[in-house]
Amino acid sequence: MVVRIRLSRFGCKNRPFYRVMAADSRSPRDGKHLEILGYYNPLPGQDGGKRMGLNFDRVKYWLSVGAQPSEPVERILFRAGLLPPPPLLAMSHKGGPRDTRPVDPLSGRFLTPVDPTPLDDEPDEVEDDKSDS
Question: How many CA atoms lie within 13 A of 110 on its CB side?
Fold first, then answer.
């Protein structure tokens, strides 16, 4: 049995609220779970921040026995300081060459700016051959 740490959606329409839970990978999103590990509220509160609460001891236990976090939970656990940052690569166009510059995992912006190509201060002079014919 493969155990995943993932989000289960609760709340009303347009007002989501999630529980972080350990569940069998074959069970549905809001279905049977093994243990509730915390909660995550993506809507900003009165202070303007997102709310989350995790039982760190149980999350560490499930990670130690081989549970795989889903991508959203992996980002939540990174912000909580339990996991290293996930590898991010930015793509310029779909199917195009990948941009290999490092990306900040919290903001999603590039850490180093693009080096502009050096331009010559003096433009090349083009001589026009005008003949008086």
Answer: 10
∠9-15-16 over CA atoms, to 5°? 20
What pTM, to 2 d.p., does this model score? 0.60
Partnered with residue 16 across adjacent β-strands are 11
- What b/e string do you get for 20-35 counting C-beta neighbours within 10 Å, with b at 16 or more? bbbbeeeeeeeeeebe
Give the integer Cα–Cα distance in Å for 27 and 4: 10
Report d(CA 94, CA 102) in Å as an integer: 18
The CA distance from 3 to 69, in Å, is 9
For residue 125, what pLDDT band results from cuts at 50, 70 and 90? Answer: low
pLDDT tens-digit map of 38-63: 988 888 777 777 788 888 898 889 98
